[in-house]
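User: I'm new to structure prediction. If I give you an amino acid sequence, what do you actually give back? Let's try with this one:
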Amino acid sequence: MAAPSAGRLPPLLLLLFLLALLLVDGAAAASSVTYDNRSLIIDGRRRLLISTSIHYPRSVPAMWPKLVAEAKDGGADCIETYVFWNGHETAPGQYYFEDRFDLVQFARVVKDAGLYLMLRIGPFVAAEWNFGGLPVWLHYIPGTVFRTNNEPFKVRVACEFCGCLLFPVLGDDPSDIFWMQSHMQSFTTKIVDMMKNEQFFASQGGHIILAQIENEYGGDEQAYGAGGKAYAMWAASMALAQNTGVPWTMCQQSDAPDPVADVYTDHSGGCAAFLANIDSENDKVVTFRDIQYDLPAWSVSILPDCKNVVFNTAKVRSQTLMMDMVPETLQASQADPWSIFTETIGIWDKKDFIQNGFVDHINTTKDSTDYLWYTTSFDVNISYPASGNHPVLNIDSKGHGVHAFLNNMLIVLIQPIWIF
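Assistant: Good question. You get back a string of structure tokens that encode the predicted 3D arrangement of the chain. For your 420 residues, that looks like this:
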């Protein structure tokens, strides 16, 4: 076999060289994400992004690509989602990231669509979600007060009197209380590390450009007194220590420390403006900097230069073309698979417990179900004539449904009526 001539690479070396070039070219370049009092800045360019909210657990994974694609078609540049702590950490230190809670897969769908992602970790998210996303097991840690400068909320402990060892004990005596790690910080770090492992942060060449710690706390901070302020500052400091390489925000937190941004902070000077009409029924005319602006009901106008409206949320793009109905030969498609969850209801002769009166729903069900069944019975041992007065059963309940039986026969069935 002849040796390669001078200046030429052997075929194997040439192949490896070309492969290395492809890997370098294919790797996503890291992005710089910063901000000032005017806008978000990505790679030195000021950006005004239109974001769409898609909460991944509120749909199934098969729906995610279509939902994200429709958001993109509607003009969105960015998807934002909360991260739901109680769906992911079902018990202390036990995590779940499958099916509807597959956060990595959802983030990948957004990335594949070419959109940015804002990750609102919270871990308190509100979002009309049970317990605001906080795991119900936090409620049973002695002395816990949520969302304040409270050690049982912030600090993980192992103790004998809790009824179980919540976490591994660091010493020999399990009755001792050891400072271990913040519940909130542990979950935040868990999520951040998962995103880092996937190279999802913009600083790694990914698409996550913003992260959020806490949510809408500014309005509640005063109620907690000094503990509220200390908690907010601790949360900001903890978030920054995650070293994500992207800015963190604190929604509705006017005292958020720099470099944590408050997305609602208003700065005077050459800044962008957001004009909001929170009246859900009536249009408004507002005057801003001596200029009048028409604001449709329940909408926000965006003025990137504090003068010209470039977008109003009530004036989104819609279909204007006329559709023609034409004959088409269609074939029946295979039905999409459905998954069914069967909720166990109360069984008359198998009681979980006996209680004289009503019980607290969350404390009883531990947030494992939205349903709590009460059963009771009584006997009427008096004979009544065919005519005249008869016993009357009055039921006063705040429950969603009632089933009443007389001599083992169903006589009353009241189902809930949902009005949306």
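You can read the tokens as a compact description of the fold. Here is one thing that stands out. The first strand starts at residue 33 and ends at 35.
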